[in-house]
Design brief:
It is a single chain. By secondary structure, the chain is α+β, with helices and mostly antiparallel strands. Helices cover about 35% and strands about 30% of the residues. The two termini are about 20 Å apart.
């Protein structure tokens, strides 16, 4: 299990375009990715769930990556998170 923390740098936060990019980049990954903001949690593969987080610029996301290719998946996330 890998845990990451990421502060959103995009003033618009997590909106449709970056969420679609994240989901697309994770399509070939086997690991599960859970993104948490406050009390809300969503799978990084669930576009509607990620929109439901309501993440805005400056918000701190807590991310958990679990699975057989978690290192590769975490590296991908580090490059695509806004």
């Amino acid at each position: 299990m890998i845990q990451l923390t990421h502060v959103l740098n995009d003033p618009q936060g997590l909106h449709a375009r970056p969420i679609a990019t994240i989901a697309s980049k994770l399509a070939n990954c086997q690991s599960d990715v859970e993104i948490k903001l406050g009390e809300r949690t969503a799978s990084a593969r669930d576009l509607i769930g990620m929109l439901g987080l309501g993440a805005r610029g400056g918000d701190e996301l807590h991310i958990t990556v679990t699975g057989e290719d978690e290192e590769q998946t975490a590296d991908i996330l580090r490059t695509v998170l806004p």
